[in-house]
Amino acid sequence: MAINVDTVYKTVLLILNKEQRGYITPDEFNKTATQVQLDIFERYFDDINQQLRVPQSDYDYSSRQTSLDDKIAVFKEEGLCTYDLSFGKFILPASTFSGKTVIYNTVPVPVNYCEFYKLGTVLYSKNINYPVRVQRLQKSEFYEINKSDLTAPSENFPVYLYEGQNNNSVNYLDVSPSSITNNISVSFIRKPQNVTWAYSVGNVGQYLYNVSLSRNFELHPSEQVDVITRILLYSGVILKDPQIIQVAASEIQQNEINQKS
Question: How far apart are CA 232 and CA 36, in angstroms?
Answer without folding.
Answer: 10
